[in-house]
Amino acid sequence: MSDAPAPEPRDPKAALVFDDPLNQQSSDDTDRGWGERPAGDSAADLSRFLDEKPPHHL
Predict the structure, then answer these.
(1) How many CA atoms lie within 13 A of 1 on its CB side?
(2) 48 near 37, Cβ under 8 Å?
C-alpha cells in the first residue's frame, strides 16, 4: 500500500482520439457546408443575385 495521492482526473477534451476521421461527417458533407442558404422568397433571391453579381455583368 502506498501513501501517494490519487492522480487528479484528466480533462476529457485534452485526451487524444484515434478514431478514423473519415467515419465522421464533416460540414461539407451537408448542403449547409457548400454555402447553401435556407429557402427564401423571390425578393431575397433577387437581392442575393444582385449582391453576388460579378462586376463585369453590370
Answers:
(1) 0
(2) yes
